[in-house]
Amino acid sequence: MAARAPRRMSRLPRRVYPFRVLGMGLAGIASAVVLYERQAGWPTWGWMLVIALAWPQLAWLRSRRSRDPHRTEVGNLLMDSALAGSLAALLHFNLLPSVLVLTLATVDKISTGLPRLWLRSLPWMLGGLLITSLATGFAAAPHTSMAVIVACLPMMILHTIGVALASQDLVQQIRGKNRQLDLLSRIDGLTGVTSRRHWQQQAEALLAEARVHGRAALLMIDIDRFKDINDHVGHAAGDEILRALGEILLQLQARPGLAGRYGGDEFALVVPDVDHAAAAALAERLRATVAVRTAGGPGPEATISIGLAMVDTAHRSLRDWIEAADAALYRAKGAGRNCVETSPG
């Protein structure tokens, strides 16, 4: 985890760089029109070109060569705001381009997703504005000509669309991560069967169906002497047995979600629309399959004990149904293990 963190953090410079080039470059177009109209001198033109063209490349080099690219890029983002303030003063506060530059510089900080970065950037913006204003004698010419308005349009349109597309991409990534998290919450990573919480939801729904339509069976399954296997053969061998049992249950379940990992080495399988004879036959087939599968596998041999409980009117809740199957499972353990016992009723 620690080894992967720097690489994950270094994505920030790569994400910010194209927007810095786009934003500063488009701001440079509008600024050039303002400076041309004002017949500004070469020092003013030179500083504008440094901000619009040189700074994005310098910021990229700083981040790439830094031992901590994430931290360096945060510093670059703060400098962006200082330069935005400086550019507004350099333009003698020409209204439209100055407002756009300061606003987009703030929006860029918000779009990074870094907490409170936009607030931290405001003193930097004010500092750049004041220092450059001192150099220009606090000159102000807020009037915006039609030529400048037209030159500002690319900055208004292209930068806004670019930020929107980047935000959409981030939203899609977040949705993908949420889907993965949802899958992880529903599926047991080792065995592939449903996790306990999700299995309980599925079993609750099937129990409600069975009360209306009639028949269903619950199998509680426990690997015999699983602790001894872990202690004497190793946890890797135990994991192989768990995986094998999970694969078998996935093949036997009538529809997805009915096989679940209830505990460490305890599993549950809900079987809809069966009578007792069919459910008992399925349980016996499961028991025999596990014995044969593990006997021929690379790991140790393993057997399972199964408790079977049919849906009954006495089962007022899923907990009652599970307790009936658990009681049958304990009888199977007491009877010597590697067998199937049925709950009376």
Largest sheet: 5 strands, mixed
Proportion in β-strands: 5-15%
In angstroms, what is the radius of gyration? Answer: 34 Å
Domain module tally: 2
What distance separates the N and C termini?
A: 52 Å
Uncertain regions spanning at least 5 consecutive residues: 1-9
Number of strands: 5
Q: Give the overall form.
A: elongated
The helical percent reads 55-70%
Pfam family, one: GGDEF
EC number: 2.7.7.65
Keywords: Membrane, Transmembrane, Transmembrane helix
InterPro entries: Diguanylate_Cyclase, GGDEF_dom, MASE2, Nucleotide_cyclase, Rev_trsase/Diguanyl_cyclase
Give an overview in words.
The chain has about 350 residues and is of the alpha+beta class. It has helices at about 5-10, 10-40, 40-65, 70-90, 95-110, 115-135, 145-185, 195-215, 225-230, 235-250, 275-295, 320-335, and strands at about 215-225, 260, 265-270, 305-310, 340. Strand 4, helix 12 (about 320-335) and strand 5 (about 340) form a beta-alpha-beta unit. The chain contains 12 helices and 5 strands. Helices cover about 70% and strands about 10% of the residues. A 5-stranded mixed beta sheet has the order 2-3-1-4-5, sandwiched between helices. Helix 2 (about 10-40) packs antiparallel against helix 7 (about 145-185) and helix 5 (about 95-110) packs antiparallel against helix 6 (about 115-135). The protein has 2 domains: about 5-185, no CATH class; about 195-340, 2-Layer Sandwich (Alpha-Beta Plaits), CATH 3.30.70.
